[in-house]
C-alpha cells in the first residue's frame, strides 16, 4: 500500500502541504492513521509539481524514506507551487525496488499515483497488458503493478479519454480480473481525478485556499469529507464532483 495526495490552489511551499501539517504525508510514511493494509510507507517517496508558464511538471523521487532525505527538506522549504501530486510508498512484493517504481509517474502534463495492490500481478492482468501496443509495453518505466496501471491509464489518455474516464475504465477492467485495491490519483495541473476502490480517500475544498484530495486527512481541522468506496472523484479549485463507479462484469 501507499499514501498519496494531490493539491490545487494558491502557490504555497511544498512544505506547507507535505510536511508541516500534524498528520502530513511526511508523517504518514511511518504513522498513517487510516491505512487498511500495511503499517509503514518507507520504501520511497516522490513529489511532482507544476511551475508557472510550464505545463510539464517536475518530479523528485527517491527509493529511501522521505525522512531520510535531507535534500527534500531544502526542496520543500523553497519550492512553491499551486498544483502538486505526492506519494509515500509501501512496496508490492516482486516490484522494482528503485525510484523508477515510485510515484508520481508522469508523461506530458499528467501525474499519476496508485494506492493499493493488484493480487497475482503480473499474470492476473496479462490479458490487459497484451492489449497495449508493443512500444507502450516496452516503455513501461518499472516492473510493478502501479507502473502497469499507469500504462493502461496513459494509453486511454493518449486516445482522447478525459481524466475521469481513463481512471474509471482502467479500474473496471482490472477489477473484473482480480480482487485489486485501486485507489488511483491523476492530475493535469488544473483538475484532479481519483478513485476510491478498496482503501480510504478524503477531500477538502476551502474557497480561496484550494482543494486537497488525499488518502487520509493531514490534520483534524473541519472540512474533510470521506469519499465512499467505489467512487470516482473529480476536483478543481472551484468544486468537487463524485460519481459511483460501475461494478465490473466478471
From TrEMBL:
<feature type="domain" description="Glutamine amidotransferase type-2">
    <location>
        <begin position="2"/>
        <end position="250"/>
    </location>
</feature>
<dbReference type="InterPro" id="IPR032889">
    <property type="entry name" value="EgtC_Actinobacteria"/>
</dbReference>
<protein>
    <recommendedName>
        <fullName>Gamma-glutamyl-hercynylcysteine sulfoxide hydrolase</fullName>
        <ecNumber>3.5.1.118</ecNumber>
    </recommendedName>
</protein>
<keyword id="KW-0315">Glutamine amidotransferase</keyword>
<dbReference type="InterPro" id="IPR029055">
    <property type="entry name" value="Ntn_hydrolases_N"/>
</dbReference>
<dbReference type="InterPro" id="IPR026869">
    <property type="entry name" value="EgtC-like"/>
</dbReference>
<comment type="function">
    <text>Catalyzes the hydrolysis of the gamma-glutamyl amide bond of hercynyl-gamma-L-glutamyl-L-cysteine sulfoxide to produce hercynylcysteine sulfoxide, a step in the biosynthesis pathway of ergothioneine.</text>
</comment>
<dbReference type="InterPro" id="IPR052373">
    <property type="entry name" value="Gamma-glu_amide_hydrolase"/>
</dbReference>
<comment type="pathway">
    <text>Amino-acid biosynthesis; ergothioneine biosynthesis.</text>
</comment>
<keyword id="KW-0378">Hydrolase</keyword>
<dbReference type="InterPro" id="IPR017808">
    <property type="entry name" value="EgtC"/>
</dbReference>
<dbReference type="InterPro" id="IPR017932">
    <property type="entry name" value="GATase_2_dom"/>
</dbReference>
<dbReference type="Pfam" id="PF13230">
    <property type="entry name" value="GATase_4"/>
</dbReference>
